[in-house]
Write a structure and sequence with these properties.
Elements: E1 2-7, H1 19-34, E2 39-44, H2 69-79, E3 83-89, H3 96-115, E4 127-137, H4 140-160, E5 164-165, E6 176-180, E7 186-187, E8 196-197, H5 201-223
Parallel strand pairs: 1-2, 1-3, 3-4, 4-5, 4-6
Antiparallel strand pairs: 7-8
Helix pairs in contact: 1-5
């Protein structure tokens, strides 16, 4: 089994220390605690210098972008795994590079369908799990906001591209989300524009662990 954890953050100043990327590594640790035979790759979009879609239609021939090798490398990884975790920060409605991926996936499907009405993307029915997070203090209302305004929008978009989103539970049917423990987690600095954000990793791990286990179970059942 191969899993991919895509950090959609583009916070260059944080690099590997961004919350999204660290969540990817946390998922990898959770998986490999009891599943050493499962391969998990953590992939930060920060490392991919992608280009916006030009709507040229050339992808109808190969399901690849003739102008963007960075996107093609990413798509090769997406098509080569059994399940994907998308970790999405809420510093914008949806991070810009993630939107670029959405746009190109959509055009590959559309151009492929125009050429062949029976077209199916290579990623058809790949399970995906979305984990949304942001800088608001956790309350019932704020978690609901992250789920409905971030996680659900991403899940609905991926679902329209024929991925298979999985939910956390009945309360959060489209994925998991988390915020900050309290206002002390935001610490301003005189030498930086943005504050330091302190995450409670002991709280985050049990929040996302059930979603990780659901992903593994779903893939296992699909391959039986």
């Amino acid at each position: 089994m191969k899993l991919l954890c895509i950090s959609t953050s583009n916070t260059k100043m944080m690099g590997e220390n961004s919350t999204s990327t660290r969540v990817g590594h946390l998922i990898k640790n959770i998986v490999q605690q009891n599943n050493e035979n499962i391969s998990v790759e953590v992939l930060p979009l920060l490392e991919y210098d992608m280009k916006a879609c030009l709507l040229c239609g050339a992808c109808s021939n190969s399901s690849r972008c003739i102008y963007d090798e960075a996107f093609n490398r990413l798509l090769n990884k997406i098509e080569g795994v059994d399940g994907i975790f998308f970790i999405v920060p809420h510093y914008s409605t949806i991070p810009a590079k993630f939107i670029m991926i959405f746009e190109k996936l959509n055009e590959i499907i559309y151009a492929g369908w125009i050429k062949d009405p029976e077209f199916k993307a290579a990623w058809n029915n790949i399970p995906v799990a979305i984990i949304g997070h942001g800088g608001m203090v956790e309350t019932t209302e704020n978690l609901r906001y992250y789920h409905d305004q971030l996680v659900t929008r991403v899940a609905d978009t991926l679902r329209s591209f024929s991925f298979l989103p999985i939910g956390l539970n009945e309360e959060y049917p489209n994925g998991a989300c988390f915020g900050l423990s309290d206002s002390s987690c935001i610490r301003t600095r005189e030498d930086a524009v943005y504050p330091d954000i302190i995450q409670d990793w002991d709280k985050i791990e049990p929040r996302i662990k059930p979603l990780v286990h659901k992903m593994i179970t779903m893939i296992s059942e699909q391959t039986e």
